[in-house]
Automatic annotation (TrEMBL):
<dbReference type="GO" id="GO:0016491">
    <property type="term" value="F:oxidoreductase activity"/>
</dbReference>
<feature type="binding site">
    <location>
        <position position="228"/>
    </location>
    <ligand>
        <name>FMN</name>
    </ligand>
</feature>
<feature type="binding site">
    <location>
        <position position="167"/>
    </location>
    <ligand>
        <name>glyoxylate</name>
    </ligand>
</feature>
<dbReference type="InterPro" id="IPR008259">
    <property type="entry name" value="FMN_hydac_DH_AS"/>
</dbReference>
<feature type="binding site">
    <location>
        <position position="252"/>
    </location>
    <ligand>
        <name>glyoxylate</name>
    </ligand>
</feature>
<feature type="binding site">
    <location>
        <begin position="283"/>
        <end position="287"/>
    </location>
    <ligand>
        <name>FMN</name>
    </ligand>
</feature>
<keyword id="KW-0288">FMN</keyword>
<feature type="binding site">
    <location>
        <position position="26"/>
    </location>
    <ligand>
        <name>glyoxylate</name>
    </ligand>
</feature>
<dbReference type="Pfam" id="PF01070">
    <property type="entry name" value="FMN_dh"/>
</dbReference>
<dbReference type="InterPro" id="IPR037396">
    <property type="entry name" value="FMN_HAD"/>
</dbReference>
<comment type="similarity">
    <text>Belongs to the FMN-dependent alpha-hydroxy acid dehydrogenase family.</text>
</comment>
<dbReference type="InterPro" id="IPR013785">
    <property type="entry name" value="Aldolase_TIM"/>
</dbReference>
<feature type="binding site">
    <location>
        <begin position="306"/>
        <end position="307"/>
    </location>
    <ligand>
        <name>FMN</name>
    </ligand>
</feature>
<keyword id="KW-0285">Flavoprotein</keyword>
<dbReference type="InterPro" id="IPR000262">
    <property type="entry name" value="FMN-dep_DH"/>
</dbReference>
<dbReference type="InterPro" id="IPR012133">
    <property type="entry name" value="Alpha-hydoxy_acid_DH_FMN"/>
</dbReference>
<feature type="binding site">
    <location>
        <position position="132"/>
    </location>
    <ligand>
        <name>glyoxylate</name>
    </ligand>
</feature>
Length: 354
């Protein structure tokens, strides 16, 4: 493909053409038969939006707030590891792209750039830090402290990955981290990062993690803590009881337990359980502005986008990632205009066909 991408699917195709097979397998792939990966997108297509007419849409704006932080749209950047596999500027380019789009970037524990350096790349932009709790709690603590000291505004505790899902594309492509790509968290725990694969990384995880650890993280944290990887409404309720300021309905882009429901299908039940107490976000399969509208209609405060941000980074670094976000914003604002909803807060269950 040579033409300028006009949607997120075009970026996906472009990245597939340009990336070496191993890194592409790692980014694109998911667990087992990839049923959940497919279902994340297909489930959006099972919902139908129901427009209302003769609403004044002259001032449509996607701007909103998430945990009190103003954002230009209810679309955030999901945490994804190893962004220097996409582009030499990695997380720093992603941070500048998110800042240009006026939204929040969530920086992974397995970033290829230190939390402080990502912050320095876009100093005024809001950003969150995603936490994997490693057996070596000192490594986790040091990264969290660095993020807090660098002004990150929230912690996102990922709870769906005590081990790597069985990622067969990685196995077939023989993917492991190439030389020259550092992951500060992994080098602090292991000394070296070259040759490590997903299973190798996740063997560093602390399998004793429970609700008590969430409570402790919340107590020790000067910033709000969200829990990412929630499927069950009862777990959402438990997360809130243990102090979470928000929950993210997510199946890790289908990369962990294959066969779990699409995130969009668990959003409604989670919103019913905790939506009156905390903000509920979701990720998985968001590829269109209309997907964002569906999530808002089911009660999400915002969505996060994972792979498409990486495809943008592969295609054109900071500019590519920024364009992915701009495409989503344009699609979302057009969708809001056609749906008859001037602001994100106007989108409700009444805008979905029964
Ligand atoms: C290549 C890749 C790396 C990821 N790394 C992380 C990570 O480090 N921490 C995390 O919590 N989730 C991680 N995720 C999951 C994303 O945060 C998110 O849940 C998922 O990508 C959303 O689905 P989508 O890719 O369909 O948008 C990763 C996903 C991908 C594709
Ligand atoms: C080889 C490093 C693997 C990091 C794992 C990050 C992650 O969450 C993922 O889904 O992949």
């Amino acid at each position: 493909m040579t033409a300028q991408p006009v949607n997120l699917h075009d970026y996906e195709a472009l990245a597939a053409e340009r990336m070496p097979p191993g890194p592409h397998a790692y980014y694109a792939g998911a667990a087992g038969d990839e049923r959940t990966l497919r279902d994340n997108q297909e489930a959006f297509a099972r919902h139908r939006l129901l427009p209302r007419c003769l609403v004044d849409v002259s001032g449509v704006s996607a701007a909103t707030t998430v945990l009190g932080t103003p954002v230009s749209m209810p679309v955030l950047v999901a945490p994804t590891a190893l962004q220097k596999l996409a582009h030499p500027d990695g997380e720093e380019a992603m941070a500048r792209a998110a800042a240009r789009a006026g939204t929040i970037m969530t920086v992974s524990t397995i970033a290829t750039t230190r939390p402080a350096d990502v912050a320095a790349a876009a100093p005024d932009a809001p950003r969150w830090f995603q936490v994997y709790v490693l057996k070596d709690r000192g490594v986790t603590r040091a990264l969290v402290d660095e993020a807090i000291d660098s002004g990150y505004r929230a912690l996102v505790l990922t709870v769906d990955a005590p081990r790597a899902g069985r990622r067969e594309r990685d196995l077939r492509a023989g993917f492991s981290v190439p030389p020259g790509i550092d992951m500060p968290a992994v080098s602090a725990a292991l000394g070296s990062t070259t040759g490590i694969d997903a299973a190798g990384f996740f063997s560093l995880m602390d399998l004793t993690l429970t609700w008590k650890d969430l409570e402790r993280l919340v107590q020790d944290s000067p910033v709000p803590v969200l829990v990412k990887g929630i499927h069950h409404p009862a777990d959402a309720d438990r997360a809130v009881e243990h102090g979470a300021a928000g929950v993210i309905v997510s199946n890790h882009g289908g990369r962990q337990l294959d066969g779990v429901p699409a995130s969009i299908d668990m959003l409604g039940p989670v919103v019913d359980a905790v939506g009156d107490r905390v903000e509920v976000l979701m990720d998985g399969g968001v590829r269109r502005g209309t997907d964002v509208l569906t999530a808002l209609a089911l009660g999400a405060r915002a969505v996060l986008v994972g792979r498409p941000m990486l495809w943008g980074l592969v295609a054109d670094g900071e500019d590519g990632a920024a364009h992915v976000l701009e495409l989503l914003r344009a699609e979302l604002e057009l969708g809001m205009t056609l749906l008859g909803t001037p602001g994100p807060g106007d989108v409700s269950a009444a805008h979905l066909a029964p």
